[in-house]
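Comment thread on ticket #2218

A.B. wrote:
> Attaching the input chain for the structure job we discussed in standup.
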Amino acid sequence: MFTTSKRCFFIGIWLCSIATLFAQDFVETAKLYPNARHASQRFGHAVGISGNYAITGAHREQFDANEENAIEDAGAAYIFEKENEAWVFKQKLVQEHRWFVDNFGIAVSIEGDYAVVGIFGEDMDDPNEANVNTSYGAAMIYKRDANGIGRNTN
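C.D. wrote:
> Ran it. Output below, let me know if you need it in another format.
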């Protein structure tokens, strides 16, 4: 049963009541933004958090890590670290070999020292990036080290 006035579902219990109960335990503590904002980059489309680290994808970002070299929908992911109760931008991740409509950052996750970033439109399907196929997709794994997060080559 569905009621449009409350947008609740009944499946033995009222789901809206459960959502309200859990929502009362959370308080907004921060709103994250990319280090450079661009129209339609879709920052925040995908997000992840682990301990003091957060990652967010911007699958339509055009610019590289230096905010140069625009490529339509190449994508990016952003790493933030919680320092003294504030979330601080740490690093912008982009593919080494960016291409248009790769949508790097369409999905993201972070856990411990590792981050993974989905690349919906990836066209290269071998380690040497020589075999081009249309939108096979891929996931890039990164590992944090003393300098931040870098591509995991293991």
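A.B. wrote:
> Thanks. Noting for the ticket: Confidence is low (pLDDT under 50) at residues 1-6, 12-19.
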